[in-house]
Specification:
Elements (H helix, E strand, L loop, with lengths): L2 E4 L4 H9 L4 E3 L9 H11 L3 E4 L6 H6 L1 H22 L2 E7 L22 H16 L3 E6 L2 E2 L6 H10 L5 E3 L3 E2 L2 E2 H14 L3 E4 L2 E2 L2 E2 H11 L8 E3 L20 H4 L4 E3 H15 L1
Parallel strand pairs: 1-2, 1-3, 3-4, 4-5, 5-10, 6-9, 7-13, 11-14
Antiparallel strand pairs: 8-12
Length: 279
Amino acid sequence: MRILITGASGGVGQALMARLPEAIGLSHSQLDVTDAQAVMQSIVDVAPQLVIHCAALTNVDRCAQMPHEALYVNGFGTQNVALACQKVGAALCYLSTNEVFDGERGTPYGEYDPMSPVNPYGYSKYVGEQIVRELVPQHYIVRTSWVFAHNGRNFLHRIVGLARNGKSLSVVTDEVACPTYAEDLAEGIIALVRTERYGTYHLTNQGAVSRYAFARAILDAYGMADYPITPIVKAQFNRPSRPPTYSALQNTFAALIGITLRNWRAALDAFVEHERQKI
């Protein structure tokens, strides 16, 4: 199968490329998805059977500060990719987010529960989902959350970096979701697209946890169990983006075809062990 991956230099993109060496990967510097002509030309030239669309603006605070940019990249950029897939008859796998849900009901969200994003990032990814559904019948929409990868900067890196520099840590207790290891997510995506069962799926590591409990587990895994963290609530944390309170995702449809990811704590331990081996 000829596969093209956008956003190939990101955490999930790199994990996919490591497992799909035959795929053609395009980083942002190689393909700006907001350039409609370049996207069309690149996809027509490759003529892939499947595009895995990882390219996105995922900095939620930047999205809140620049909502038009979020919609431009995650909405219009996705439309460009979808139209090119339509042109060449390629299937499209679109990575979406738990933040398409408002997080108000306090229980995990299923794949077909009503969406109601509460911030510009979630809205831009919601728009991307609608575009994919409208333009590409053969699609996979894969929602995930709190992705941590070996490259780039994410919540895990920030917590460890601050602790190693002796900085004070205050982390919210009232934001809950499912941490997801990029390596596990990549394996789940590959297993899913090989089934050719199109639809909407939730792929996260199993188990829901608060930001505070996740931060505590991160420091524990790095041998800093005694490092203090002050628990706070979202109202005490001034940031541009308003994250959903409880946006854990329930994997129903992928599990029915045998695709599940391990528990988030086991995934965290695997991440830390891999990092230690690189030293």
